[in-house]
Amino acid sequence: MKPAPFTRHVPRTVDEVVSALAEFAPLDGRILAGGQSLVPIMAFRMARPAHLIDINEVEGLDRLAVDGDYLSIGARVRHGAFHKPVIDGPLGKLLAFVVSHIAHYPIRMRGTFCGSLAHADPASEWCLVAATLDAQLVVKSVRGERIVPVTDFLEGIMSTSLAEDEFLAEARLPLLPDDTKFGFYEFSRRAGDFAMSAALVTYRLVDGVIADAHVGIGGAEDRARRITEAEDVLNGQAPSPELFVAAGEAAANAIEPLEDIQTTAEYRCDLVRAVTRRALERSLQ
Amino acid sequence: MTVHTKGSGTTWVGRSIRRLEDPALVTGRGRFTADMPATHWVRFVRSGVAAGTIKNITAPEGASIVTAKDLAKLKPIRPMLSKFNYVAVGQPILADGVVRFTGESIAAVYAPSKDQAEDIADQIEVEISEGAPLIDAMDALAGDAPLVHADTKHNVIVEGRIATPGFEDVWKTAHKVLHVEARSHRQNATPMEARAGHAAYDGSTGRVTLTCTTQMPHLTRTAVCDILGIPESDLRVVAPDVGGGFGQKMSLAPEYVLLVWLARKLRSSVAWTEDRRENLIASFHSRDQHVQLEGAFDKSGKLLALRGDIVANIGAYSCFPTTCGVEPLMALAELPGPYDVRAYDCRSRGVMTNTCPMAPYRGVSRPVITFVLERLMDKAAAAFGIEPTELRRRNLIDKFPYTSATGLVFDDGSYKETMEMAIKAIDLDAFRKRQKTARDAGRYLGIGFATFSERTGYGSPAFAARGMEITPGFETVYLTIDPSGFVEARIGSSPHGQGLRTSLAQIIADEIGIDPEFIKVVHGDTDRSPYGWGTFASRSLVLSGGASLLAAQKIRAKLLKMASHFLEAAPEDITLQSGSAHVIGTDRSVTIASMARAAYHQTHIFKGEIEPGLTETGTYDPSGTFSNACHVAIVEVDIETGRVEMEKFLVAEDAGLIINPMIADGQVHGGVAQGIGNALLEEIIYDETGNILTSTLADFLPPTTREIPEIELHHVETLTGNSITKAKGLGEGGAIGAPAAVISAINDALSPFGISIDEMPATPQRIRAALRSSGKLPSNGKTA
Fold first, then answer.
1. The CATH number of domain A64-174 is 1.10.645.10
2. Which end of chain B has fewer CB atoms surrounding its CB within 10 Å, N or C?
3. Predicted ipTM?
4. Average pLDDT over residues B141-159
5. Is there a contact between B706 and A270 if contact means CB atoms under 8 Å apart?
6. What was the pLDDT predicted at B484?
């Protein structure tokens, strides 16, 4: 269980990263960040990159800071950075709550936020966070920089819109207004396992009714995304158990569920119904 | 929390002394097979298909490769049974023209490093003409199914039946008949250390030392030498520290045969370390069974008769030394469990498929049959409208010795007592009230009881009854006090985590008056230890413990005789304690160390009345003894998702005299954890092409500490005449009872829905599907 042979490159600057990518991506080169997904699948030889461009020494990519109205998360920021709220207000709390669901402690000390997005596992908690909060993603290559909305970034199971020579340098999460309520609920077989379904909800209460509801579902479809059908149920209504049940129902009806040998579409919908309602219930706790 | 019914006295036995094994293990000084350097590293090229014919094997230029044609002189692995219509199929060391399961070794390559070997193996191209694989045993039994081995009929490799006379007459008198159709899915024992072997050729003697992670070094030596056709004196087998076995490491790995063959060919050292994927697909599997069981009860809820049909999927080959009969035949003999039932009619078959071969796994069939039988008892209790424990109370055996319908003789036990203890400790009445309150609030709590027996420490007659060519029975211990005054016990058992070194030292210490820390137990080296059978089947404490006691009694007698010389007192007036012989009631004493010195260096002082040296042999071959326990699980089922949350687990257990309570508790804890994994999580899944979908630990899910609840233990100590140390085995009980208790608790929780979960593991998907099928789910999932 050893990876197939590969060459490791260790750039020190973003410029070196993008030029290494331009050179080696066509020769089956890939970015190595935390390696918590890539290295195991290389060990199984399910992935056999000939070149690894290791960004762990690149200066500046470990930046985690507020820029104006968003939180900027550099490509080297590890999951563990979010164990304690990184900023005051609901966003820091939300990230701290979610991060405890990501795998296990040693993995969180190594794996990166941007790496999770670039890997695009449908069950990824960070993909769900990015999708629910409408993240903007900063993508770089020798051709320059572009900023991609998350909906245009996540394309499917382990699939993104990154071009061969591009890498995800930074994720930008919009700051949440102080009165934002949030709830997260994940269902997995064991503690730390991949989510079989997860829901993240955020909204504001304006005059006792829900406004600007975001309902994100992960682990259930080929990618995490917002479910507008569930948001429509919530917006303009006062929170109530019945409303949350209805939102769960709307989410379950709206998804195109993943199936596998153990998990039917019907069961996945059952989970979505449950996790959506429970995330909403948690938003009031 | 642990409650012991017997306090510790002045003996070493009965005390929770710290394990003598642990200092090395917890400070990183353990020595494992994979730690050893080697000149050549082997990588196996494994079949990517489940059934087919090998057309061609292409290796890159210069690759060092071994295929079946190089091994033409080797015999296949062909374990034997003389009964039960057993068909003696052979397993080649490397697939010889035909592949029979995904993961079967087709070739071995070797290179100076592990990584290079893997890179070369990666470039080997194997062309296979694919056949239609048989995955499920029921499909393999179908009349038109292809044959995995041509010698079998309908792929049945072993078939047994036990029918008591007059069965039908009893059956006709039934007041109620209950039926269970149960399925236990396939599992992997998943030891923390996967398999590993290292074979080193010694140029001066021509011998090979095979270091490997095995539970039975001597049987490995015998098997490898038989297959290679070499004298056993040419092979030394060493089991160093072994990171768990659970049965997976008691069967011969064909890979080890290849290593020894290659070390002899290259006159060098060769090594192989199995990776986790290989372990999950190509090491041994178990517990893949379909069981049909019917029970006939009289008006009072007394079980009159049991009728069963067991089908065990044993995979593509038969494991050495037990044969694949181990699962179906164990199930056949022990299905009636701890209940008094006189009429029994059961058929049990082992069926071959294109899947990884089956080997014993902690509990061997009993986790499955206990689960099925306890489902039957729970269903009967529901039919009679009584507590499941009440139905058990009316049926558990309580007069000993008890001879079962299958001819097993149960020695003294505490089947009812442990259950009553468990009912009291868990406070069943209080739970029922809490359960009702929770249900009213839309929460589904359940409690499950499993009462069972654990046959342990059986000697050679028990295995002979199964018709085994090899009857692993006796154990021998060579016990020596050397001139330094230190004690060495060389044993044939091969512990690998059980703490046996400590437990045996405690038994010996009490007899010869030397503290355990001065007693070294040597095992796992065929050059150093007497021929023995290794460690499996909850046998080692009973057998090696008994042999240790017998040897220690002889040493004690000799020490007393010597002390009588030194102290000029009658032997009966002398005690041995803390390293000295004392004349009772006086201050006269002599150290055992000085007597040991004299036994070798000053033998003239005994004037020929005492033989020189201080070594004695003990051999023990008992009839066997039954441990028993009652397991209780409390769970909560999330009816919306099907998820089972373990709230509490309780064990009331009787394994006779407990030698070291801490070690005994640890055995139960580990077994219960595995049992919970079996009940809820662990499943090897093949797709219809015979490919394994659960080849990583992200897909095959052993429980973690987060999934295991608090485990409360209670002990009863019934002293049996069937074990000279009064200790019974308890290595498997945790794993035997826990699945039944957990499944029972799930069914109790879901009783309002009128469904029955008769499948293991009870995954959330299966539970939720059953709930849906009930048609009784509340629309919002919150209230019933």
1. no
2. N
3. 0.96
4. 96
5. no
6. 94
